[in-house]
Amino acid sequence: MLASFIMAFGQLNDSRFIKPLLYSLGLSLVVALIALPLGYLGFEWLNQALLSWLEGGDSWWMDTIEWSLRVLGILIMLVVLFFAFGSVQTAFLGLFLDDVVTATRDKNHPTIQLEPPPSLSKSSWASTRFLGLSLSLNALILPIVLIGWFLPPLGLIVQLIANGYLFGKEYEDIIAVRFQTEDRLAPLKRTIFGTATAALFLVPVLNFVAPVISAAAFTNYIASRNE
Predict the structure, then answer these.
(1) In a domain? residue 45
(2) Could you give the percent of the chain with pLDDT greater than 90?
């Protein structure tokens, strides 16, 4: 597994990695720019609803509560966006993954024959399904992650394992179809692979290229099992 990631890092300057990376990153940034103001408006609505329920008038403590809730809402929104960004980018990368798989095969496993890439409709459905599952999963574990801030490393462990399983399954599903094999990774090994991917998403700056690195690493590993 380590060798697969090392080979993936060594191929980051491949021109066929650049387009999928830029497309997936650009679309993810557009989604983030749309989600941020919508999330802020949503928290403001909840904030005002809570203040109205408290009926504190113009008391000084109402102003304190209002600004505390506003700051808390912004922090939660930024945390959710940071954790969800990798899932959004991975979902978009699924639409442009063919170049990454082909470039990885050409450099490291030239004797492997690839199946034709799935149709755009299948890729779109797979990306949409993954995004829905990922956002739902992270919404479910968000309370544990927030509690984990005060009980480290509970939140980090839960997030890495949960997302590791999801990332491992998704990357295998979208990459294994390109290989002439029915052999699948064992659940534990797939989860370990996915957990390494989830860990990359937590490293600032590196998280922007993590989807492409992970896709190439999975391609290397699956290809090596079929040589």
Answers:
(1) no
(2) 14
pLDDT in tens, 94-122: 888 888 999 999 999 998 888 888 888 88
Q: Which two tokens stand for residue 163?
A: 């997302």
Domain range for 14:
2-27+83-224
Residue 6 lies in a domain: yes
38-71 tens-digit pLDDT: 888 887 787 777 777 766 556 666 677 777 777 8
User: Quick check: is 42 in a domain?
Assistant: no
**Number of independent structural domains in the chain:** 1
* Domain presence at residue 48: no
